[in-house]
Protein: Response regulatory domain-containing protein
Organism: Sandarakinorhabdus glacialis
Amino acid sequence: MAIILVVDDEVGIARLLEDVFVDDGHEVMLASNGRQALELALTTVPAIILTDLMMPVMDGAELAAALAAEPRLAGVPLVMMSSMPEGVVVAKGAAFTAFVRKPFNIYALVDLANSLIVR
């Protein structure tokens, strides 16, 4: 079991991922923007973070930069999820472990997350 932080302002996607990962035996924390995610991650360091790119308050690229600047969180795998092409995300300067294009295959995302979880 691992703690997974899911960051997405689309409630339906966040709840779907929560349900799937809980069914897979993980604990899930939810945030609707990067600022909330950073606060949660600083309180309880997750094993992996899955984040949307486009969100209000603090987007996924800004979250990636904030995580990289925080020594306790810099090594946590970050999966960037977006309907935008990967090149757009890279152009924003976001550093991430893996990229998943929306809409995604839920089974492939679970397999990817499980393979990246820091044990």
